């Protein structure tokens, strides 16, 4: 398939105003199983060689930045932890700024992020993609914790519905956050894509304004829609969990589609 | 606390038009742990002696009618299985009438109700209060089953948010149904309180119209709100999962409050 036109015409014709890239990781750089997507290593290297700042915005919440980098570099990327923006460190900053004490309903692999944070007498519940840790006992404990709070605060590291893992659709954290919202009559504060604050923190790190960057992702809502709502261009790749029906999405129209990240980078560099 | 006034004034002053009672079980007759609530045995006996028809509308979905009756009679009640209206038999009828094949996400204790129902190649998912069976693996299997259906049908035996068990608030099936609704973009068909059809089937059994009966329960939404939407009076007891903040509920105003079932029955019999 050729690169399709976005609503503003060929997005890459505006390459001159684009000074930086935000990239999703899973489904753009590599598949959930850990295999690099064709051309994605070359694409990231090409951006670096051209001096284009890049940050990686991911809703990966099962492990730390260091683990993410280790997994990526093992298959041939060359990333640094400070370039990765997952929700956990943002949640950590958020709860420390507000003086909150978390009850964690997250994957064991992500708990290191909160190791030195006071977790006694919780004043908020934090939900990550806990996977098998979403047991009835753990859901109940989080629920009871919320119900015991004078002002219940529920924080969720994204609202993804499901993802593809080992070829099977698998429940993401969003449905479990919805369950707690319904049980307690509260609305979760989402920290992670598609929250505006989340994209801005990555942009801030490379000193760019939203209109000076493009977000490239496979999730039509969290990546593309979220970025656009924040003022960035949003381009969808036809890899990862992309499905042809995304191109008729009810509420989100990307600024463009590309077959994969490498095509996006080549088009950008050619028209810059 | 004294019996509080409902929006229509003292509900029991309308006792002359009330000919029958629908009673919730858990939180009204006994606590989830199995202890009879003070005065509740006396209250049921008093209604029987006065010749007032009574049916028991419960969203208990962890076991069969016979088990429920055994548990109640062990602590001093004198109930018959045909007086009990739980959701499982209604769900069974519903799926057989429609020729559906269920994927069961229910408690092992309730599976006997579906023992002779074809469960191959499921065409619907049935959610009961599965409690510890609400594991991530079981939730994921139900989700994958729904996603594999051409026309996903999700059936839930109620939408209760939580109940009180051994003195602790405990997640009910509603939040887990919400999780599946959100993940799959479907709306559950609710069979059980607060569905109108469910109250009507119990009323039908005693030959009464909605305006001739009162529902007494501890759940402000499922018991009281559901009954009122069906045309019954709805009175909330201050036992079970009742919490003082229920008296300022955003959408449901009961026809009255009573400290417990015995107070309701005494007020009713006095003003009849």
UniProtKB/TrEMBL annotation, chains A, B:
<dbReference type="InterPro" id="IPR036412">
    <property type="entry name" value="HAD-like_sf"/>
</dbReference>
<keyword id="KW-0963">Cytoplasm</keyword>
<comment type="similarity">
    <text>Belongs to the HAD-like hydrolase superfamily.</text>
</comment>
<dbReference type="InterPro" id="IPR006355">
    <property type="entry name" value="LHPP/HDHD2"/>
</dbReference>
<dbReference type="GO" id="GO:0005829">
    <property type="term" value="C:cytosol"/>
</dbReference>
<keyword id="KW-0479">Metal-binding</keyword>
<dbReference type="Pfam" id="PF13242">
    <property type="entry name" value="Hydrolase_like"/>
</dbReference>
<comment type="function">
    <text>Phosphatase that hydrolyzes imidodiphosphate, 3-phosphohistidine and 6-phospholysine. Has broad substrate specificity and can also hydrolyze inorganic diphosphate, but with lower efficiency.</text>
</comment>
<keyword id="KW-0378">Hydrolase</keyword>
<dbReference type="GO" id="GO:0016791">
    <property type="term" value="F:phosphatase activity"/>
</dbReference>
<keyword id="KW-0539">Nucleus</keyword>
<dbReference type="InterPro" id="IPR006439">
    <property type="entry name" value="HAD-SF_hydro_IA"/>
</dbReference>
<dbReference type="Pfam" id="PF13344">
    <property type="entry name" value="Hydrolase_6"/>
</dbReference>
<dbReference type="GO" id="GO:0005634">
    <property type="term" value="C:nucleus"/>
</dbReference>
<protein>
    <recommendedName>
        <fullName>Phospholysine phosphohistidine inorganic pyrophosphate phosphatase</fullName>
        <ecNumber>3.6.1.1</ecNumber>
    </recommendedName>
</protein>
<keyword id="KW-0460">Magnesium</keyword>
<dbReference type="GO" id="GO:0046872">
    <property type="term" value="F:metal ion binding"/>
</dbReference>
<dbReference type="InterPro" id="IPR006357">
    <property type="entry name" value="HAD-SF_hydro_IIA"/>
</dbReference>
<dbReference type="GO" id="GO:0004427">
    <property type="term" value="F:inorganic diphosphate phosphatase activity"/>
</dbReference>
<dbReference type="InterPro" id="IPR023214">
    <property type="entry name" value="HAD_sf"/>
</dbReference>
């Amino acid at each position: 398939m050729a690169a399709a036109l976005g609503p503003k015409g060929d997005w890459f014709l505006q390459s001159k105003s684009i000074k930086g890239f935000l990239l999703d990781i899973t489904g753009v750089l590599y598949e959930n199983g850990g295999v690099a997507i064709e051309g994605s290593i070359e694409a990231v290297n090409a951006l670096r060689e051209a001096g284009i700042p890049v940050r990686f915005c991911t809703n990966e919440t099962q492990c730390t930045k260091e683990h993410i980098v280790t997994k990526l570099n093992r298959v041939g990327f060359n990333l640094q932890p400070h370039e990765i923006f997952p929700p956990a460190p943002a949640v950590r900053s958020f709860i420390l700024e507000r003086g909150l004490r978390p009850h964690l309903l997250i994957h064991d692999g992500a708990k290191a992020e909160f190791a030195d944070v006071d977790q006694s007498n919780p004043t908020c519940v934090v939900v990550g993609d806990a996977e098998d840790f979403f047991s009835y006992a753990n859901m109940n404990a989080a629920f009871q914790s919320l119900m015991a709070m004078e002002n219940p605060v529920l924080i969720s590291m994204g609202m993804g519905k499901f993802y593809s893992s080992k070829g099977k659709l698998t429940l993401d954290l969003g449905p479990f956050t919805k369950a707690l919202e319904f049980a307690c009559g509260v609305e979760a504060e989402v920290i992670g894509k598609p929250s505006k604050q989340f994209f801005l923190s990555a942009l801030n790190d490379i000193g760019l304004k939203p209109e000076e960057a493009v977000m490239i992702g496979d999730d039509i809502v969290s990546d593309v829609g979220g970025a656009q709502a924040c003022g960035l261009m949003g381009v969808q790749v036809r890899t990862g969990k992309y499905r042809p029906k995304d191109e008729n999405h009810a509420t989100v129209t990307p600024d463009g589609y590309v077959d994969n990240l490498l095509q996006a980078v080549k088009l950008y560099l050619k028209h810059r």
